[in-house]
Every structure is written in structure tokens, then in C-alpha cells.
């Protein structure tokens, strides 16, 4: 196959050269209005073309490669004992779930809680415009044990409303959110 960026022949949809040059992550920290810390690894504009890959197989593979490349080294640097990862609404709609893929790549260090934090409002779709995603209330349900430490996992942060809403239901359910991890930050102000 060919690298989706440079179009050179590659074993993976992103080649080693692109990963180590233009896809070098730039970890950054953002504090949401409720105090929740969000770590991101790319600016949304830098990788938006990749995130909207048309072919499902490539899309899933690209998410997996970027998670391994950018997020995993960050998580490794923590001493993560008994910390759970809680992907946001890891429901499979377009063949795969972004947040579940990121979670899976981190599963050596964080214990995954798949399908526990689900949105009752399912109008969101990965291809949807960012301004639509921003306005939506997700109306989450959480079904996991309490008194645990979790890291929220999502693909993109925009206004932060989804993460704030997820954090709220965790608080209500006695689940302690340490921070959130997303692949890309789409905050236009930055
Ligand atoms: Zn390349």
C-alpha cells in the first residue's frame, strides 16, 4: 500500500518517515472550565485529513498508528497502576470506534472499560462538522463500578463540552477522573 501522506510505498497507511517528521506529536495541556485537564497530541488542523480517511480499514489503522506513536509514550511515562481507561461512547457506527481504538493501544498500561460510558443521544457521527458536535448534549449513561480512578479517552476535543458532561456523570457515580486524553485538539483559539 501507499502512505496516505507522502504516497510512498509503505507497509502501513502512514510510513515511518512521515511519523517521525510531520507527525511528530506536540503534546499539549488544556484546562477546561470545570478544571478537567485534557492532554492532546496534535492540532486538529494538522491531522484532520487523516482523521477523515474514507476507507474504514485505513481509518482504523491510522488511528491505531497515531495512538501508538503519540499517546502511548506519554502514558508509558506515568506509573499507571490500577488506573482505568474510559473511552467516550465507544459505539461502533462507521465500522469502528475512534475512542475504542485509542483505548486498545493503551491497554498494556491502562485497564480498558469498554462500552461503559454511552451516549443516549446518538446523533453524533465522526464525519459531522465540528460546530454541530459542539452544540450537542450527549446525555451519558455510565455503568461501571465506583471508587476507581479513570482517564477519559476521546478522539477530538472541541469546546470540551462532551468531556465536561462525561466528567459530570463520573462524579455523580463516584468515579474519579484523573484527566482526559484526546488525539487532537480543535480549539480554534489556540
Ligand atoms: Zn509517508
Summary of the model, kept short:
The protein is of the alpha/beta class. The chain is built from six helices and nine strands.
Notable features of this structure?
single chain, alpha/beta, 9 strands, 7-stranded mixed beta sheet, globular, 190 residues, binds zinc ion, two-stranded antiparallel sheet, Rossmann fold
Low-confidence stretches: none
Number of strands: 9
- Mean pLDDT across the residues is 88
Architecture, according to CATH?
3-Layer(aba) Sandwich
Percentage of residues assigned to helices? 25-40%
What's the oligomerization state?
single chain
The number of domains: 1
N-to-C SSE string, H for helix and E for strand: HEEEHHEHEEHEEHE
Rg for CA atoms? 16 Å
CATH uppermost class: Alpha Beta
Sheet/helix structural class: alpha/beta
Largest sheet: 7 strands, mixed
Would you give the CATH topology? Rossmann fold
Distance between the termini: 35 Å
Shape: globular
Which cofactors or ions or other ligands sit in this model?
A: zinc ion
Strand content: 15-25%
Provide a count of the helices.
Answer: 6
Please explain how this structure is put together:
The chain has 190 residues and is of the alpha/beta class. It contains six helices and nine strands; from the N terminus they run αβββααβαββαββαβ. Helices cover 32% and strands 22% of the residues. Strands 1, 2, 3, 4, 5, 8 and 9 form a seven-stranded mixed beta sheet that branches. Strands 6-7 form a two-stranded antiparallel sheet. The model has no long low-confidence stretch (mean pLDDT 88). The site of zinc ion has 7 residues, from helix 1.
